[in-house]
Amino acid sequence: MTPTDTAQEKEDDSAFLPWWTGVSEISLYVNEQETENINNRFQAKYAYVPRRKVMLTLNPEPQDSNEFAPFMGDAIPMKVVAEISDEHCQVLLLDLGNLPSVYRYPNLVLSCKDKESHSSYSPVYGRLLIHRAVLAGLLKEEGESQVLPVKDVTDVEVPEYHAYEPAHISVKDLRSENLVLQGRLCTSRGMDGKNDICNEKKNEAECSWCVFMKSGPCYKSFSQWQGCVKDNKSDDAFIEKCADLTIAMKDCVEAHPEYYGAMANVDDDDDDDAMEGEIVNEGEEPAAESEVEEPVTAEGAAIQETQTQTQTQTQTQTQTQTQTQTQTQTQTQTQETQETQETQTQIQETQETQETQETQETATETPMKEETA
């Protein structure tokens, strides 16, 4: 293979990389007009005025990025709850509604003493400032995602917090003013702040199993298989049309046990033991089956429909007791586990169909040879 061919192959592979590859930040970016309105309404108390944005996640894991895919490029309303400040920083506490965020206290930093991120009082301190106000009883948490001011206070002394010295916090309740800001949800690489345009493509949220598969070394073979399933989800010949891609994906998974773990060691004749429970990150407890309510994806639905038809057509063929147990177990498992097991079942059915066809061809050829003799 020539260097040109290698470069072309890498370029072709890159087309299948999941969109979240290389994403370093997802935030709500405030446009120039909104920034001017904020600056006119809230006078900066400290020297450094950072870019007007609300960070939602930094160096996100694939599953975190996936949550924001359906909202990419949308203008998100941000309700202003309160203004909070101490001797080092000044922030607006915000209510983002149901928008996901990896941070507990969504906020927009108005000003702070230091610019450098390694400094103790850089814009990152904004979240810690809100947390200190909560610990001091100046803010109260209601539910899992809402923080509200108890009352207006000025220069209330709060104790030291880890390496941070005691501070004097002021809180001003702004809910009665009904201030609502707008932020454009985008990645840092895709945001055109000058024109208020997000160049990151909007995507459907993937199932967590799909995110896991696409984030590994078999992202290309899985994406090709997934595309075939979606293109043929209403076609009775789905298994036949996607057979080669299914086998290619299986071979890739088996070649990378360092990432896919138990999936790479599944025996074709022992599908009923494959991938019991969700695929979870190390140290993360798997959810109880009754708590998993993830919608079936298009490819999952296609597999279910086609598999039912195929099972009906092949009832006259020899089926092992393992296949029957697999069908029974699949009905009781979670939808994510269904996708994994159905893929394995599809692989086995494809192989059995090919073997059956070869047997039939051999059986047909034998009498012809005897007659010739």
Automatic annotation (TrEMBL):
Spans annotated as Disordered: 303-373
UniProt domain GCK: residue ranges: 205-300
Cited InterPro entries: GCK_dom
Signal peptide (residue range): none
Gene3D superfamilies tied to this protein: 1.10.287.2900
Comp. bias intervals (Low complexity): 303-366
Protein name: GCK domain-containing protein
Lineage per the UniProt record: Eukaryota, Sar, Stramenopiles, Bigyra, Opalozoa
